[in-house]
Amino acid sequence: MPVCILIAALAAVSIYGFFHEQLFAQQLWAEEGVRSFALYVLVYWAVAGALLWRGRVQWLIPAAVLYAAWWAGPVAPAVVLFFLGSCYALGHRWAAGTTALLLGAAIWMLALWGALHFPVNYRWVYAAAFAVPYVWARPALGLPEAADRKAAAAMAVLLFVLGTQFLAALKPEISSDGLSMHLALPAAVADQGRWAFDHPHAIWSLMPAGADALYTGVYLLGGEAAAKLLNFAFLALICALLVRVARRWTSPERAYLCAALFASTPLVQLVTGSLFVENVWAALLLGAVIVVVEEGDLRIAGALAGAAVAVKLIAVAFALPLAVLALRGKARVAALALALLFALPPYVFAYAKSGNPIFPFANAVFRSPDYDSATSFKDPRFGDLHPSWTAPYDLTFRSAMYVEGQGGAAGFQYFVLLLPALLLIRKRDQAVIAVVSVAGTAIVLLGAPNLRYAYAAMPLASLALAWLPMRAVAVLGLIAVNLWFLPSSSYYNPDFALFRKQDVEPFLAAKAPVRVLIQRLNREAPGEAVAFFSTDATAGLRATAYTDTWHNEHYWEHVRNAPDPAAIAAQFRGLGIRHVIAPSTREAPFEVVRGFLARWLDAGTTVGPLTLYRVRDAEIPIPKDTRPLAPGTHDDSEPRIEYTGAWLHDKQFAEPVGQTLSYSDVAGDVLKLTFEGNAISYVYTRAANRGMGEVWIDGKLARRVNLYAAQTEWQARVNVALRPGRHTFELRVTGRKDRKSSGSFVDLDAVTVE
Hints:
Layout: H1 2-20, H2 31-54, H3 60-72, H4 75-91, H5 97-115, H6 123-131, H7 149-169, H8 176-182, H9 184-192, H10 210-246, H11 252-263, H12 266-273, H13 278-293, H14 298-311, H15 316-325, H16 332-343, H17 345-354, H18 363-366, H19 391-397, H20 413-423, H21 428-447, H22 457-466, H23 472-484, H24 504-511, H25 513-524, E1 530-532, E2 545-547, H26 553-560, H27 565-575, E3 579-583, H28 591-599, E4 601-607, E5 610-615, E6 632-635, E7 642-644, E8 648-650, E9 661-664, E10 670-686, E11 692-697, E12 700-706, E13 713-733, E14 746-748, E15 750-753
């Protein structure tokens, strides 16, 4: 009874959350998305209903394979099945079933990551290598069967939900992370035969690449579609594991529904519809936990957990509590040795190359000379977030705090049902699952508060829900609500799915125009270096890419700190860059870059908001407006303000004048303007990261301004009275700061001339 009361209370809070956070007012689905989802529902259940009637619902699985073969060509799904069979055959020597498949994938991951270092990454090599395990074991082909009609109906629900993720996975890659890293690496290996690990150029190239190594293996044989289908296959493996283990505490039909409830979580759409790596390390960790729960061979658990860490360092948050719980098991020393064997290679290699085993992170600690060691790199989106006791509510109803999406991205089942399930723990196996899930999530949110990094907790939490008495209708209701919020975890899939091949090119032009321009460059300027502005989506470029992000920090530092646009043009000539992909508006956050885009580029092909430019041999002369500013308020974006140095133009805040700020923390940077009047007010922002600035009038120091404040104060002012007439105003960055300040930034919000 107390559990029922708690569920009712949490359900009431959920109703409050829906209305208070206005979740149903969010713009989730595009009109085309609603139509395509409705079409999928009608077609799927028409087919599934007929198969249920005949007792053959499992035939939906080969039907999906045939659909993938029609959509992407027969090679991609065949390659994925061939590789998964190779994983099973390899792991079958030490394990059975899905555990054997995961163990084989872990072994292949270690081998393929090693192969990336050498010029051996060719199609025929991989085809031959994947065939070797078939010599000693041939996977038996078979389809899961339901115990009865109820279980068959529940299996149909699971396959329906998986189908929503399957259709998203078949779409071309458009995500930022996918196009800048997880697809970029396999594409580069396919072009060059190896991965360069060139961390002075590509800062991210030393980061753990276990999943990317697997994607590379199937990419070389089956292209992009094979890599995306392999990502989906790991989601299917997670669901298969959930069904298998959930039956320890519940009926077959409820086991299928528990897996379907997990698969309906909106965040699953983000990590499966795009080429992310979360499904891979979540499956490996889930497999490791299940081995411990079933009191199996700890050596296998160690190998799987170690492989998860080789995919993403954050997996340590879940592997550590699991290791503590397994300390008393047999073969724990061997398990630890295997965990280290599978986990350490990318980190040891990174240390050998850069002096930092987790390069570029925590570089203020390890101080690699190849990256900034003054402050450690952190995710600017969530780095300052400090979760509190309201985190469960925030994760559920204010998900945008933790992921680049909207409210509801984490699903709703965990908020309502997880705490009641934890109160019903009665057995050791349940306690292991709960401790790893809750402890891992807590460590993640305290250290790197990104909802995607807590993804591995969701399958474990779904297992916890399996021992909670639930009516099927309640589970189906939660699944339905989750499905409505599918697009909430990102902005990549509001249109749900593509059902016509002729829609692919318009889809790419609308969602990832950079891919269209890269294809053009590969045809017309093969092998020539390219500079990218406002995007680091470089996957597929068969040449060296230079981006205006931390991915190419050393290059980008020189560009943004260039003294003038001509210096950037000279740098491009030295690097052999003749082509640029940049916004059609030629806008840029740094003034010197904006000047380069305006004066040194000839426009070519435009696709959506991006244009392919050609670097000019000489600067385009642009007449300078020398008129003084008249009385009135002038925003920092006023074109007559002359910025010198690395000033950043920021449009993310609503509070400043004109909703823009310009700021710099580089000593010696200066901005200058001429005005006509008898007084001028310097409008700026006081904040915790601000430093000391100097106001100069007519070449003389007029004010020293301390911009520091513990709490942000928008539109602060310093007024300087003058004789009527024409004057010059300069704002200089000194590089000095208050001892309490965390930075030395000086900003300009606006000036008011009187």
